[in-house]
Amino acid sequence: MLTAALATPQGVVGARSIWSGAALQLAGVVLFAVLFPLCLSAFLLSDFTLRAPTPWTLAVAGAAGFTGAILFRSIGRYPGIASSSYVFPCILPPYALAALYLLLARQEYSRLIFVSSGAFSLIWFYAVFFMQQRVRQMRIALVPFGTVEGLETIPGISWHVMKSSELTGATSQGFWPDAVAADLRADIPNEWDRALADFVLAGIPVYDVKQLLESLTGRVEIKHLSENSFGSLAPLSPYLRLRSVVDKIIALAAIVCLTPLLLVVAVLVRIDSPGPALFRQERVGYRGIVFEVIKFRTMRLASDSGDSQIETAITKPGDRRITRLGQLLRRSRIDELPQIINILRGEMSWIGPRPEAVVLSRWYEQEIPFYRYRHIVPPGITGWAQVRLGHVAQINEVQEKLHYDFYYIKHFSLWLDFLITLKTLKTMFTGFGAR
Question: 3-state SS of the chain?
Fold first, then answer.
């Protein structure tokens, strides 16, 4: 996500850039996660000496605070992060892991320092978030050449179409831009090229409309295949291999812990309607390989209705085939849990584009260019398109979903996976996108 306001006519740095800056946030970690807890401990315990447990605790707590800051900054650059509910999940996991480490290390540590460090870190980053939200809307000037249509419809931004290449043309109307958007692939007149250089020299960042659109919407347009930041169409293979190992470790732990729940749900499915507890279907997976996905059955057994295979495979809003229990399982995403077996088999990941039924995938491939490109990463139980758009099936909806799938592939990373995990936990309680 773009940060705002880098300059003003007087050269004063905008408020959002101050609160979004790494220097201020990390300085806050030093102050609130290390120095404040140290002072609090010294004051309450009347002990102003650095005894053995204190430096050790400060080091571990400080490391947790810095890790939380990295998570906070990393997911903050993705679109859709406008809720304070993401602060707590960014700060809590590093401190939870640090607490586990302290327990396993069996070394003496100061509970007061550690707990106060976590509490002060939460207070600090909530303050950072709310200060960022108080800043005025970001103001972006549009250079009227090339493909810039559609940008002005994006909410949350104050847009201004420039009539002249002179910077004074905007400032005379009381509009000093925080950034300039231009189609850098277009044939821009020479005076405007010089103006773009002047904007940068004046401290005003210039963004290409393509990158700006991606940053603000979380989508990648599919007019052509889009390379990632490393100039490649394929995601980074080292992270892909590492994530595959982590996926299986988490899946193994999950299936051990969730077996009682899975057995109870299986029995309830059998009681709710006639038929097997599990639903199996051939779907297209990683690199286009067909595999059999496993889910809890949420629909009544199919009867010969005369519908085509495509119509049968599509779940419509208010679909009468869905059972009473099936509605609850779909809304809570519990119906997806048996896919842990698919993860253990190496056929799926926890996070990635949702795998489509073979008949639907073949249909989409005929209708939508580049559809097969979504198979470049393993399919997942949840994904960027699911948390941003929800369930879709019609061609126009699927094309919209592809914009989000391609954004995920282009920005494939640990930080985006972490954000999707947080959004998935949030949507599990709202039932967003369930059909």
Answer: CCCCCCCCCCCCCCHHHHHHCHHHHHHHHHHHHHHHHHHHHHHHHCCCCCCCHHHHHHHHHHHHHHHHHHHHHHHHCCCCCCCHHHHHHHHHHHHHHHHHHHHHHCCCCCHHHHHHHHHHHHHHHHHHHHHHHHCCCEEEEECCCCCCCCHHHCCCEEEEECCCCCCHHHHCCCCCCCEEEECCCCCCCHHHHHHHHHHHHCCCCEEEHHHHHHHHHCCCCCCCCCCCCCCCCCCCHHHHHHHHHHHHHHHHHHHHHHHHHHHHHHHHHHHHCCCCCEEEEEEECHHHCEEEEEEECCECCCCCCCCCHHHHHCCCCCCCCECHHHHHHHHHCHHHHHHHHHHHCCCCEEECCCCCEHHHHHHHHHHCCCHHHHHHCCCEEECHHHHHCCCCCCHHHHHHHHHHHHHHHHCCCHHHHHHHHHHHHHHHCCCCCCC
